[in-house]
Specification:
This protein has about 160 residues and is mainly beta. Helix content is about 15%, strand content about 55%. The relative contact order is 0.18.
């Protein structure tokens, strides 16, 4: 027990008194400080593949009161939507909070996202019926819609900031 305590105290002492534990403070002129860019960030990654399974009973666009005095409401509805697919992460998505100067020379803090190799696979998407009726999901069907084998690769940088 004494030996364990001695080892822990020794490790703490080495960390506190090592030469790398001391930083030298350097004064900067205003011009030198203007060139400093601050940055903090994280990287995140998920499993190599995230599976997607989405089901929607009714997605409707419409109007309850119609277009005028002698009209009634109508709704265009997409019923029983089923989407199956996956998202593949080939590299981690990087997020960085940065402060930089804009074209006017003002400092702007923002969030940078870097995406290298994100693939969205839509194995299948099906809408069982497309209807037009007086309420969402009601009315006669115009038919159905299906799509399969869609693959989208996303790479690039996104910058989000406030003004």
């Amino acid at each position: 027990m004494k030996r364990t305590i001695t080892v822990i105290i020794s490790m703490i002492a080495i960390a506190l008194f090592s030469s790398s534990a001391f930083a030298k403070v350097t004064r900067l002129t205003e011009n030198e400080l203007n060139d400093v860019v601050a940055q903090a960030g994280i990287s995140f990654s998920a499993e190599d593949t995230l599976n997607l399974s989405t089901k929607v009973n009714t997605l409707a666009f419409g109007d309850n009161d119609g277009a005028g005095e002698n009209s009634s409401g109508a709704w265009l509805s997409f019923n029983n939507i089923d989407i199956q697919g996956s998202v593949e992460f080939h590299n981690p998505v990087k997020i960085a909070m940065t402060t930089a100067r804009n074209e006017s020379g003002e400092l702007i803090t923002g969030m940078d996202l870097q995406i290298d190799g994100l693939t969205v696979n839509m194995d299948s998407m099906r809408i069982d019926s497309i209807t037009l009726g007086s309420n969402p999901g009601e009315g006669k069907s115009f038919g159905s819609f299906a799509m399969s084998g869609m693959r989208t690769t996303i790479t690039g940088k996104v910058r989000i900031w406030t003004e």
